[in-house]
Every structure is written in structure tokens, then in C-alpha cells.
Amino acid sequence: LVPDMASARLALLKREGRPIFRRNPRIFPPAKSKLLRVREPRVRDPVETELLNKWWSDYRRQMAAIVDALRYCFESKGDRDSDPYRVNEKVFDEELIAINERWNAQTKLAREHYYFEDFNRKIAKLLEKREKYDAEAVKRMEALRAKTLSMEGQCKGIVTRENIDERLEEIMSSPIVQFNYAVSERGTIVHPKSSGDPPL
């Protein structure tokens, strides 16, 4: 018997009963649910594209300036006989060190401000959800109370705080109802011979 090509291909791609690839590889056809999917190109925002291009050009210009400044420091104050892979702190200008420290301080403040704002935003969101849940719970309790009051007016046999004593007295004084019986196949009711015997 010649095995099916699909089964043979699956056998090659499986190891110990588990597939090697997590996703469906390209050699397999797409799923039936994905046959009618059409990939549409994403429409780019012109303002966003302009900002990204501007930021990228600014980033390259700033990085080039930093590289030139560091190269000048290394060439002017560095020791050429020393190891080129080891950076000597003496070659850095005090102005560059001050710029770096100032930038680190500004970044730290911005990071703390962001985390503070994000934390407050999450707390406000949780409090808003809690208030919404409490309001829905109050509405649900009001609807249940209104439904209970409407049932109290319609049904006279409902037990309330006012008539609970009367209802208990009525229950205690009412005759005992025997539910210990069985129904035969013909529909006749069969009662036990005594109160303790099961129905036959």
C-alpha cells in the first residue's frame, strides 16, 4: 500500500506525536476559514509619516554629532598607545559629562512622572469600575425589591414580617399531609399500610 502524501508529509514533520512547527508552515494549504481573507494594505497617516521622517532625521543628526564629539575627545585627549577597546574616563570633557548627567536627570523625572500618572490613571479606572458596579448592584436590588413587593400584593400566601406568626400558627395547626405514596403503571395511587412502611 502506498501511503498518502499528506500523511507522509505529516509523519516527516512530526516528532514523538507532536508537530515541530507551532504555526502552519507554508507547505500546507491555508485553513478553510482563511481562504476568503483578503489582506488589505494599511493606510498610512500623512501626518504620522512626516513626523516619523523628521524624528528619524533628527535622531541620525544627533547621533552623528555625538559620535563626532566622542571621536574628537578620544583623538585629542586619549592615549594612542593604550588599549583601544578600553575607555578612559579622563578623555571625556566636563561639558559632555554635565550634558549626560543633565539628560539622565531629565529622563529620570520624566520616567517618574510617567509612572505616577499611569498609576493614578489605573487607580481612577478601577474606582470608576467599582462605582459602576455598585450602581448596577443598587439598581439590581431595587428591581428585585420592586418585584418582591409586587408579588406580595398579588399573592396572599406569601410570608412577610407582619404575618409570619399567623403563617406559622396556620402551618402548625393544619392537618398532616401524607406524601409517602407511589403511582403504579396503571396510574393508581398505592399508599403504605403504615406510616413507616415504604409503598409497595
Overview of this structure, please?
- The protein has a domain at 45-79.
- Helices cover 56% and strands 4% of the residues.
- The protein has 4 helices and 4 strands, in the order αββαααββ.
- The strands form 2 sheets. It has a two-stranded antiparallel sheet. The protein has a two-stranded antiparallel sheet with strand order 3-4.
- The mean pLDDT is 77.
Q: Keywords for this structure?
A:
200 residues; two-stranded antiparallel sheet; 56% helix; 4% strand; mitochondrion; ribonucleoprotein; Small ribosomal subunit protein mS26
Summarize the structure.
With 200 residues, the protein is mainly α.
SSE topology sketch:
Layout: H1 5-13, E1 14-15, E2 18-19, H2 46-77, H3 94-154, H4 164-173, E3 182-183, E4 189-190
The helix/strand class is mainly alpha
Strand content: under 5%
Could you tell me the mean pLDDT? 77
Q: What's the β-strand tally? A: 4
Poorly predicted tracts of residues: none
- Which radius of gyration do the C-alpha atoms yield? 41 Å
Number of helices: 4
Strand order of the largest sheet: 1-2
**What shape does the CA trace take?**
elongated
* H and E order: HEEHHHEE
N/C terminus separation: 66 Å
Report the biggest beta sheet as strand number plus sense, adding barrel if it closes: 2 strands, antiparallel
Q: What's the helical proportion of residues?
A: 55-70%
